């Protein structure tokens, strides 16, 4: 090989490293699920790819699965249930937003056959002291409603604390998934 080929190969490798650093640092992040609060959607040890820029381009949607800074050391993964201005209530294991029933189809297969409620009755006022989700805040729940530490316990989540939206579960491979939809 001549010297020009080595220079090109090294240039391509350096470019790939720089692009990987930029993607990893500014656009995407990888997270490992810890705990059981998002079961049956996500399980402990699942590896997730988080889109860190999506909320700079678009608003948060109800039922997005998000990562946020819970405190200085911990990040949590939860599902967005309440958006700014929403009144949230669970009654008879059903979600009501602003007084209207909203189907949680992502939970329906897990509710089947269960005699106990999957989500106990509550209102956000009981959990947070506020009747509505404040501006620039979100109300989040884990999908494992019985065992989840979520907005019912710690209150609203500031949109400034969002890391991003969970776009992909890539490990284990047999459970790879591109959407955690509605």
Automatic annotation (TrEMBL):
It catalyses: Cleavage of hydrophobic, N-terminal signal or leader sequences from secreted and periplasmic proteins. This is Signal peptidase I. SUPFAM superfamilies: LexA/Signal peptidase (SSF51306). The chain crosses the membrane at residues 12-33. Its EC number is 3.4.21.89. PANTHER family: CHLOROPLAST PROCESSING PEPTIDASE, SIGNAL PEPTIDASE I. It holds the Pfam family Peptidase_S26. Gene3D superfamilies: Umud Fragment, subunit A (2.10.109.10). InterPro entries: LexA/Signal_pep-like_sf (IPR036286), Pept_S26A_signal_pept_1 (IPR000223), Pept_S26A_signal_pept_1_CS (IPR019758), Pept_S26A_signal_pept_1_Lys-AS (IPR019757), Peptidase_S26 (IPR019533). It is found in: Cell membrane; Membrane.
């Amino acid at each position: 090989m001549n010297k020009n080929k080595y220079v090109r190969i090294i240039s391509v490798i350096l470019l790939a490293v720089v692009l990987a650093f930029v993607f990893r640092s500014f656009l995407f992040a990888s997270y490992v699920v810890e705990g059981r609060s998002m079961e049956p959607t996500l399980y402990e040890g699942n590896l997730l790819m988080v889109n860190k820029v999506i909320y700079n381009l678009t608003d948060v949607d109800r039922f997005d699965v998000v990562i946020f800074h819970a405190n200085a050391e911990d990040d949590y993964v939860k599902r967005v249930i309440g958006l700014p201005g929403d009144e949230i209530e669970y009654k008879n294991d059903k979600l009501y937003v602003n007084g209207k029933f909203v189907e949680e189809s992502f939970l329906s297969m897990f509710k089947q056959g269960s005699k106990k409620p999957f989500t106990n009755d509550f209102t956000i006022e009981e959990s947070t002291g506020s009747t509505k989700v404040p501006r620039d805040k979100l109300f989040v729940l884990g999908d494992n409603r019985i065992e989840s530490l979520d907005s019912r316990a710690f209150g609203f989540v500031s949109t400034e604390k969002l890391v991003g939206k969970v776009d992909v579960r890539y490990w284990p491979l047999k459970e790879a998934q591109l959407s955690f939809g509605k």
